Amino acid sequence: LLFQILGAVILGFGIWILADKTSFIAVLQMSSPSLKTGAYILIGVGALTMLMGFLGCLGAVNEIRCLLGLYFTCLMVILITQVAAGLVIYFQKEMLKEELSHIVENLIETYDPLNDDERNLQDAWDYVQTQIACCGWTGAKDWENNEILINRSMTAYPCSCSNSSKDFQVENGFCNLDVPVNSTATYADWPVHEQGCMDGVEKWLKDNLGVILGVCTGVAVIELLGMILSISLCKNIHSEDYTKVPKS
To answer: What family is this (predicted)?
Structure first.
C-alpha cells in the first residue's frame, strides 16, 4: 500500500508539471522539451511503482517468489534510475542553468501582450515576477531587449515588475511611465524591483533545499526498505507453489 501511495505521488507530480499554467514550472514546461520529457518519465515511474506495489502485495500474501523477485528487480531499476538522474542534474547544472537563461531571455525579448498564441506562457512569467517580486532574469535591464519597449523608447515597463502600489492590481502587459510625450527613458527610470528572477529562484531553491533532499532521501529509503523486505521474504519461501496464484 505504501508503494502504491508513493507511486500515486510521483504520478501526480508528473501530471502537475504538465498541467500547471500559473507558476515558474509552466514557463519551463512550455519552453523546454527536456522538462516535458522528464514529466512523462515521472508519470511512467509513478505508474510502474503503483503496479509494483500491487505485485509486491500479491507476492507477499500468496508467497509467490517470482512476483517478489520481479518486485525487487523493478525497485532496484527505479532506484538506480533516480540516483543516475540526480547525478546527471548535479553535474549538468551549469548547462541546465544556461538553457533556462536562454528560455527566459527569449521570452522577454518576444513578450507581446497582444499575442494570444503565447498568452499562457507570458501569463506564467508575469506570475513569477509578481510572486517573487523580481524583474527580468538577471535584472530589469533584460527588458531593454524587448521589441515593443524599444519601439516605445522605454517609456513603458512590464506591470508585473512594478514596485509601485498603483500597479498592484495590474499583473500583466505594459504600464506607461509618467514622462513627457516623445521622451526617452531607460530601465533605471522604471518603478520596478531591482532583483532579477534568477536570484529569486536560486534563493527559493536554497530555502527549500532541505525539504527537497529530505523527500528524495525518504523515497530512496522506502524503496531500499522494500527491496530488503522483498528479498528476505523471497529467501524464506522455500518452494514455489503456483496453486496459490489467484485464478482469474
So the answer is: Belongs to the tetraspanin (TM4SF) family.
Q: Which residues contact 158 (CB under 8 A, 6 or more apart)?
A: 111, 126, 129, 135, 143, 173, 174, 175, 192
188-231 pLDDT per residue, tens: 999 999 889 888 877 777 776 777 777 777 777 877 877 787 77
Residue 8 within a domain: no
Tell me phi and psi for residue 72, to 5 degrees: -60, -45
Residue 22 maps to a domain:
no
For the chain, percent of residues with pLDDT exceeding 90 = 14
Domain count, the chain: 1
User: Where in the sequence is the domain holding 238, given as residue range(s)?
Assistant: 63-244
Cα–Cα distance for residue pair 63/242, rounded to 1 Å: 9
21's grid cell: 499554467
Provide the whole-model pTM.
Answer: 0.62
